[in-house]
Amino acid sequence: MLTEKIILLILLAVSASTAILFIVLYARASKRYSILQKRIADSLQNGGTIPYSLHDDRLAMLENDVAQLSEQLHFEKDNARALICENNAFLADVSHQLKTPLAGMRLYCEMAQQTADEKTGKCLEKQLELLDRTDKLIFDLLRLEKLRSDGYELLLSDENMGNLCQSVCNELRDIYPHKHFSVLGTATLHCDRQWMFEAISNIVKNACEHTDEQGKIDITVSRGETAVFIYICDNGGGMPEDRKDRLFERFYRGGNTGQGGFGLGLAISRAVTERHHGTLGAENYKDGMRFIMCFPLPDGIYKFKDQQK
To answer: What is the rounded distance in angstroms from the CA atom of residue 180 to the CA atom of residue 161?
Structure first.
């Protein structure tokens, strides 16, 4: 009887020791998982490095794989940053090299105008207009490429998007006095005011150019649980589905060749939207087109808040 009790006590002691061992191992593994999670977050947000593990277990294999992946990501990020710097330097060189001959051509045209007869003067005036268009085309192209290569530093601030859209309409109302503009709703977006103003202005201007003289352009600003939305609608009749996806291509003008633009406005608008981690799309809607700008609300990227008009 005594022997059975001793054996039972031994079994209980072994079981307790085993349970304690499992608890200790689980606690250690949980702690290592927690440390690894914090290191991953630090690496993604602040560029911190993840050290290789010195343990010899299956969890160490995961830790070492994550460390290797982090090392590779930092390497690729450094390469991308170097390419951006190289691209920006190239754009600056191109801009300088193109502006110099254009300025010379403008100077010679203006000098020739002073002694030209009426017929030659009109020809020179047309050449100056073409030089202006060429200069603007080069300027917009360089800005677009610099935007796409992350070459501009955004000056972020909290902006009331309802008020910003209203400012866009007020400015364009002087150019298109017979158009009907309306702005509804509001939300505050952490953005670069100047670039966002241009992005929205380009879309509204496109709507003005593709509607009749008394066309309607309606802008609606709203905030959902996960994003801020800006809807820009017109009554210009829309466009064929097979051409809709080309709206944001460079130099695509939707067949509206009578306008004086270059087809870069919507491409710039999309680049600005993407620099703000948003998306810009278009769809046929009712009797026209609807452009949709969507800016997500993830923690740590943007701070949004509703604001009364």
So the answer is: 19
Q: How far apart are CA 71 and CA 263, in angstroms?
A: 41
What span, in angstroms and rounded, lies between the C-alpha atoms of 48 and 43?
4
CA distances from 119 to 3, 46, 109, 116 (A): 125, 65, 14, 8
Nearest partner of 90 among 139, 138, 141, 146, judged by Cα:
146
d(CA 4, CA 181): 93
Residue count (the chain): 309
pLDDT, one tens digit per residue, over 79-91 is 877 777 777 777 6
CA dist list (Å): 248 to 113, 245, 279: 39, 7, 12
Spatial distance between the Cα atoms of 51 and 271, rounded to a whole number of angstroms: 37
271: CB partners within 8 A, 6+ apart: 144, 147, 148
- Residues 152-203 have pLDDT tens digits of 788 899 999 999 999 999 999 989 999 999 999 999 999 999 999 999 999 9
**Domain spans in the chain, listed from the N-terminal domain onward:** 156-296
R_g of the chain, CA atoms, integer Å: 31
Q: What is the rounded distance in angstroms from the CA atom of residue 231 to the CA atom of residue 211? A: 17
- 237 CB contacts (<8 Å, ≥6 apart)? 210, 287, 288
Fold (CATH) for 156-296: Heat Shock Protein 90 (3.30.565)
Tokens of residue 283, six digits:
């769809």
Please state whether the predicted TM-score (pTM) of the whole model is above 0.70. no
User: Could you count the other beta carbons within 10 Å of the beta carbon of residue 211?
Assistant: 20
What are the residues whose beta carbons fall under 8 Å from the beta carbon of 98, sequence distance 6 or more? Answer: 138
Determine phi and psi for 110, rounding to 5 degrees: -65, -35
Alpha helices per DSSP H over the chain: 2-46, 58-113, 118-148, 161-175, 193-209, 241-244, 265-275
